[in-house]
Write a structure and sequence with these properties.
This protein is an alpha/beta fold. It is built from 9 helices and 9 strands. The strands form 2 sheets. The protein has a 7-stranded parallel beta sheet, sandwiched between helices.
Length: 253
């Protein structure tokens, strides 16, 4: 798919992977709708790239419907959706208070929040976007649209404390193939990126020595991923018509 001139939606686009993807799509000529909860940061990104900001909360059916309506009023029906909105939390399945020794159960609100945002929120945006994409006239090769989802290496290789995050991202990974098969006769491709540890705002808040230690664990190159590298892969998936139902780890090995 030629990115030049198409309409695109990027969720979680006020910062991190989403912001980098919105900027890269715009650099390649797309009309980008910036979906995010943060109106200040999201509005600035949209202004920088000549796009439109759409206040979006992926856990709200009403707000997502309104965001897609605003994006389509500005740019027309999108042919590209990149899902980057997400949340990361950490807690063990069973914990122990360090002072009292009291056994603590997993905070279920954290588990439910991860599923609501990372998994259900991703599918909510897919459903809204795909319903619009199927109405488009096909391009020369029969293609109508492309969806890129963000899972995580934790979907395959979850670490201590990542049970909720891994479960939510594992769901994102697992649902991509059946969605691609659901949409195959409509000419809509679905692919998934599984990022490793990237230097997003959340990671940037960690002490520098912690970031360096995380980067040193990467086989090569021995550093954290750059959001721009995620954006490049997302755009490659959009531009490559034979790439469908694929899941690609992006983690330096």
């Amino acid at each position: 798919m030629d990115i030049q001139g198409i309409a695109a939606v990027v969720t979680g686009a006020a910062s991190g992977l989403g912001e980098a993807t919105a900027r890269e799509l715009a650099r390649r000529g797309a009309k980008v709708a910036v979906f995010d909860r943060d109106a200040d940061k999201g509005g600035k990104v949209a202004a920088d790239i000549g796009g439109v900001f759409c206040e979006a909360e992926v856990t709200s059916e009403e707000k997502i419907a309104a965001a897609f309506a605003r994006a389509r009023d500005a740019h027309g029906q999108e042919r590209v959706l990149v899902n980057c909105a997400g949340v990361a939390n950490a807690a063990k399945t069973v914990g122990r208070d360090k002072q009292t020794g009291e056994i603590k159960f997993y905070p279920m609100q954290q588990f439910e929040l991860a599923i609501a945002i990372n998994l259900i929120g991703t599918f909510r945006c897919i459903a809204h976007s795909a319903a619009g994409m199927v109405t488009l006239d096909p391009l020369d090769d029969g293609e109508r649209g492309c969806i890129v989802n963000t899972a995580s290496v934790a979907a395959q290789d979850g670490q201590i404390g990542q049970v909720a995050y891994s479960a939510s991202k594992g769901g994102v990974l697992a649902m991509a193939l059946p969605i691609a098969r659901d949409l195959m006769n409509d000419g809509i491709r679905v692919n998934t990126i599984l990022p490793g540890v990237f230097k997003t705002p959340m990671v940037a808040m960690m002490p520098e020595h912690v970031q360096e230690a995380l980067g040193a664990q990467v086989p090569f190159p021995k550093r954290l991923g750059k959001p721009e590298e995620y954006a490049q892969l997302a755009c490659f998936m959009v531009e490559s018509p034979y790439m469908n139902a694929e899941a690609v780890r992006l983690d330096g090995g």
